Every structure is written in structure tokens, then in C-alpha cells.
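Can you please make up a whole protein chain along with its C-alpha cells because I've never seen that pairing?
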Amino acid sequence: MDTDNKLYNQDFYSWTQQQAEFLRTGRLNQLDIANLTEEVLSMGRSEYNALESRLTRLLSHLLKWQYQPERRGRSWRLTVVEQRKRARKVLDENPGLKQFLDAIYASAYDYAVLAAAKETELPRKTFPPESPWTFDQIMQEEWLP
């Protein structure tokens, strides 16, 4: 196990190749279970974070769209379209995330308020404390507030 930890810490790529070879050849007793478990969990967290990030960007642009109508433009609209597509893709590829959607959405909205306040230079209290829109609403293809 010490050798596994050393390789894991000093040459992650080689460690991954070694672990894949152990799996491929059925040498399960040689797997670095502790680090392998952590990496698998990390992969799941990265998908969770990817969805949260896409929704944050989408929501911040929707907030800017609603609260700064004089600055609306093609770029904002295209960002909304892109982030919807990317969020759908993450959900399509990871349907298990749907069970966490309420928590992800609430967290994304909190970050979106921070981003919108920073980018618009409007006070944070300008924006509702909770999303005024449902997830289904913001994911509708042509919908804008």
C-alpha cells in the first residue's frame, strides 16, 4: 500500500494506468482501494459541480436579463442558450443527479445572485433571496424573464 500511495502522490497518470491494468487482468487484490475509492467519489462530485456551475451561469444571466434590461444583447441570449444545453447534457449523462436537483438549484441560485450583483453593480438585496423561477421554467428553450 505504501508503494501505491507513493505512486499515487508522485505520478498520478502512471497510478491510473496501473489501477486500470489491475482491473483489466482481475488482480483485484493489488488495487489501491483507498485512493481508487476517493477518485471514483471525486468523479461523481465533479459531475455534481458541473451541473451547479452551468445552472449558476444560466441563472446569473437570467437575473441580469431581468434586472438590467438596457444591457440586454445577443451575447447574453447566446449564453443562456448555451448553458441550458450544457446543463441538459450533464443531466442526460448523469440521471442520478436528478435526485439532488433541488439542492443543486438552490445553491446555484445563491452563487448566481453573487455573480449578478458583481456584474451589474446592483446591491445584492436587489435580487430575490430565492429563485423566482422554477427549474423547468429556466430550462424552457425560448423562455426569458
Remarks:
- The mean pLDDT is 95.
- Residues 60 and 112 are 4 Å apart (CA to CA).
- The chain is about 70% helix and 0% strand.
